[in-house]
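Progress report, Aim 2. The chain analyzed during this reporting quarter is listed below.
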Amino acid sequence: MAELSAEPTLRTLDGGSLPIGADVLDGLRSRLGGSLVTPQSTDYDDVRQIWNAMIDRRPSLIVRCAGTADVLACVRFARDHRLLTSIRGAGHNIAGNAVCDGGLMIDLSPMKSVRVDPWNRIARVEPGATLADFDREAQAFGLATPLGINSTTGVAGLTLGGGFGWLSRKYGMTVDNLASADVVTAAGELVRASERENPDLFWAIRGGGGNFGIVTSFEFQLHPVGPEVFAGLIVYPFDRAGELLRRYREFAGRSPDELACWVVLRKAPPLPFLPPEVHGTEVVVFALCHAGTPEEGAKAIEPLKDFGQPVGIHVGPMPYAAWQKAFDPLLTAGARNYWKSHNFTKLNDEAINLTVQYAGQLPTAQCEIFIGQIGGATKRVAGNAMAYPHRDAEFVMNVHTRWEDPDDDRLCVAWARDFFNASAPFATGGVYVNFISEDEDRVAAAYGGNFDRMAEIKRKYDPDNLFRLNQNILVKAVA
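Predicted structure tokens for the chain:
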């Protein structure tokens, strides 16, 4: 209890400050199964850190939740005192909305349970679980649902923004596979959201981010996948990048739904299947995953091998859970990251030429441009069926700038912005909400024609905008 002796002052929703007495904190603590962390706690700096080192904020109070009862207690505490409040899942969001300065951070990361019902092909997942946690349990039964491409990503944040990955062309967006969710509202109540229960809330949380409440349990539909898939990398030299991307465009247009092929333009990491002289040079990487049989996968990717003379090939049957971790070494926590993103319905020659131009000017060895192929099943849902609207997107491009030295901030951010601005005329104007960085105001672009309905639902479930540290709908609507 010694760490609670200093009375913290917390920021309020109106921008003021509120001293919280020790007796009030003791009352909160008595209702928790988890722990209270303050700036005086020995683990404070560890707990407040998130994936993107560009974000360095200092909450006045952190609650590490052990379960739904803790979340209810926190929301009621924040509501009663009108506290600035942030919600942390796995802490992987690029904008850093998990952490606030001076307010209350509700930390869900200890809530990692994943329970799989293999008979009904359902997974019930808590909001602190990562993709690795999910895959470990589901793959024990040869099951999966479409998630992202980095195993340390949080299931909650990825899902609430829409969610896509290697399986999306076959099985849709992550939100297309969400059957229900348990949500703590701003009123401090736990409600179920599904097609039959609170259907407006269910519509909104499927793509609307953290605007509407805190999800304490997700229920996903599972599909037979693995335990082995046909996956891997085909790496080509950069000097033919334009030609390779044009051939890829044609290949992607003919791909079966079972195959997702992404393109990464970057400097080659020291992968063991690449010759040493290639390490550190610009390359074009085709990263692929086939959700069918290994025999079907091998046949489907044969044209990729005929694009020219690769500098390295590493493809074949491998555990799906291992492939989900393949890019983890390039995406470790603690580096500085800045993203800019576009959606595309097609890759025309102008967009390809610009991509090649900027990929040849990478500001650091960790920077990259990736083009994620979606389409397939993701396009077979109406754009207004749920909050996530971008059903026309065939490709999502992310300009992923990554570096270590703060002195490189200006250079790296400028490179990303310049490429983003130059390529904007060839994009849809829409953006995947989870790829919006801290300094961007693109909420309207993220939600398009669904925005007005989302604002109405936001006013119903969170009229005081308690849940505002996100790509916020109500602030934009009022403005």
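The first strand starts at residue 9 and ends at 11. The chain has a mean pLDDT of 96. These observations will guide the mutagenesis work planned for the next reporting period.
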